[in-house]
Amino acid sequence: MSEVDMDGEQGNEKRVLARFKSETGDVVGNLLDLPLYVNVEHLTLICNSLLQQEENTVYAFYVDDKEITKSLDNVLDLKSLNTENVVDIVYQQQAVFKVRAVTRCTSSLPGHAEAVISVKFSPDGRHLASGSGDTTVRFWDVMTQTPHHTCQGHRNWVLCIAWSPDSSRLVSACKNGMILCWDADSGKQLGSPMTGHKQWVTDLVWQPYQDDPACRLFASSSKDGDVRVWDSVLCRCLRVLTSHTRSVTALRWGGTGLIYSASQDRTIKVWRASDGVMCRSLEGHAHWVNTLALSTDYVLRTQAIVNPSDNVSTSDKAAIQALAVKKYKDIVKDSGEYLVSGSDDFTLYLWTPEKDKKPIARMTGHQQLINCVAFSPDSRVIASASFDKSIRLWDGRTGRFLSVLRGHVQAVYMVAWSADSRLLVSGSADSTLKVWNMKTRKLDQDLPGHADEVFAVDWAPDGLRVASGGKDKVLRLWQH
């Protein structure tokens, strides 16, 4: 076909004026005259040349919050399209590495004598810990997929565990209200038991690495209505935060020096960690608040981990702390730290608790109580798991409803994101795990294997494997 024919054929093509914009609204380059058949590959090439980036930088592109997955004409309303209007194409840089969906169970790790209630990978991904109804905490070797240490000291069900940001220690808490600290390498108990809570402990969180490179301080919440801040080295309670009138259900320690606690008294309290002063109370839920998540959860979890590309010595504490601060600032630079809460009233609320006590959005659609919420690592999407057997996806900035993921046949207990925000894994009372693809918003993998309800699931921060545990007392590891 001659060039004239080509031009003739494409001369009939509808074209639009477009410009590229960053997520913060900065315009890049000049106006472009683009044909409607332009696809993601074309847009990536144009965007990389405008930004003078390497050719293999990957982007997602959006027009009016709709992602371009095929070509430009798929997201434009062609009937009402005015070709003289400028179309804004918002580009968002994607994680360079791709996490592959876990597809098979690589090992079943028996050992616990009762249900496995919590499962957590260490921030560096090298260790795995589990807490169980058999009163023990177990450490597992991730590489050899074998038991490492069995830690005894609790006298009742171990309800929650939390890794220190530097992966060196783990705190665990039981139904008696006692908290113990363990050394990750030896499995030995560090210091004396920490007691003070009058009822069982519901959540544990460490102070972010950027504010505490020695990884000494952590906080606990309890059914007794108190939040306590502890020194893990002295094994002493530094302060008690009291204002809730009912059980405290969930806890977060943000990067702005604030602690957030959710309670059955229907409120979320915001505390200043440095002196324990209550800054504000967030109200709106009509029933118990069950779960909290911060838009910075992933970066706060992994900010002490040094990658080879960071050019930082692992022995240089000051440099690691500076790197941690930079990672945090990169994720909050556009819009600050967001908090999402899920409740027994079937709703979620999105907050910017540092700035305002009014919510940004009230998110409705679930038909039963919400058990778990989680921000994607890039903080763009919120996933909520509910007893109504579904998972719902919401915009992490506006709270706008995006999609519903159906496939489980019983209550969904927990969800966990892959490190690149492209995949989500869910654990359910129907004894299965399911992996969901965020591009298609459909089921990617169905993972049967457990013999009973799956209570806990975690995706390793390095993206390589998923761990799950539940009522069948077995820990399972899943890989690609």
Tell me what you see in this structure.
The protein is mainly beta and 480 residues long. The protein is globular, with a radius of gyration of 24 Å. The protein starts with a helix and ends with a strand. It is built from four helices and 37 strands. Helices cover 9% and strands 45% of the residues. The strands form nine sheets. Strands 2-1-5-3-4 form a five-stranded mixed β-sheet. Strands 6-37-36-35 form a four-stranded antiparallel β-sheet, with no helix packed on it.
Structure at a glance:
9% of the residues lie in helices and 45% in strands.
The number of helical segments is 4
Query: What is the CA-based Rg, rounded?
Result: 24 Å
Portion of residues in beta strands equals 35-45%
- Biggest β-sheet: count, sense, barrel? 5 strands, mixed
Number of strands: 37
Layout of secondary structure:
Elements: H1 3-11, E1 15-21, E2 27-35, H2 40-51, E3 59-63, E4 66-67, E5 86-93, E6 104-109, E7 116-121, E8 127-132, E9 136-141, E10 146-152, E11 158-163, E12 169-174, E13 179-183, E14 189-194, E15 201-206, E16 217-222, E17 226-231, E18 236-242, E19 248-253, E20 258-263, E21 267-272, E22 278-283, E23 289-294, H3 297-302, H4 317-332, E24 339-343, E25 348-351, E26 361-363, E27 370-375, E28 381-386, E29 390-395, E30 401-406, E31 412-417, E32 423-428, E33 433-437, E34 442-447, E35 454-459, E36 466-470, E37 475-479
Primary descriptors:
disordered N terminus, single chain, mainly beta, 4-stranded antiparallel sheet, 480 residues, 5-stranded mixed sheet, 37 strands
